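As a warm-up, study this chain.
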Amino acid sequence: MSNESRIRVELYEQKHKAQWDEFVRQSKNGVFLFYRDYMEYHADRFSDFSLLFFQGSELVALMPANRDGDMAVSHGGLTFGGVVSDTSMTTSRMLEVFSALVDDLRAWGVKKLLYKVIPHIYHLLPAEEDLYALFVHCARLYRRDVSSTVVAARKLPLARNRERVLESARCRGLSVQRTPDVSRFMSIVEGNLQARYRVSPVHTASEMQRLADRFPDNIKLFTVDQGGETLGGVLIYESENVAHWQYRHATEKGMEVGALDFITDAILNDLYRDKPYVDFGISTLDDGHTLNTGLIRNKEGYGARATVCDFYELNLET
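Now compare it with the structure written out below.
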């Protein structure tokens, strides 16, 4: 193979920003989470180790990543972050990408790669060449989370208990609207998580507000109000194929009057009725080994069914 046809790997630098973002924009499996302005909101917490793959002068793939000692992760600060590719990616080329990736990671002293697969619902075209490459390189599936997804073209009926709550909520003068004040909603999220689980949300209120202001077409907060009082809301991460629930919370009063059922109905049947997928997020703990049955039962009551989010470990010492 000539030097011109070999895959060349480069570490991301600021000079690559425009080229990186444009590739994500026209890729077949990239989402706004991979834009540099999103990835770098928590740059102080992760040592960036993102990679660009060139064949000659052509950029053929990207991989958001960070480094943690002798381990690389794709990417620790993102829900997922595998190889991003465009329509030119073929299975043979992906094998070349992975061969170059493995060789260069070893040369850089990396002993293990943790690889977070981009779920298929985010693909604009089939983009599972990386799964085959992981198999060829004997990567080990070490975690599988279960998310719950509604398919717009094949909506399932609501469970009877969800129908009853929704019918009651419709009689209470509730309304749904998009709201710019994300930080106010995040105070509800923080309060609920502290009270129930003694944990904090992944994003602080100021971080979430800053990201929503930076990506108004992708991060949208919808709240449910009654007489001017905010009773709850859903923060949506929107990509071309998927409206993903990032946060969904209500006040104690909101829970009593069915605010979350009311706003979920609005999302599924009005606000995002034409979106191919509405994803409710994961219901698993302990690297996927423990299922929160109450949580997933609630999501499945809206007609959502399982989508898996896979994580692979590639040992580079053998």
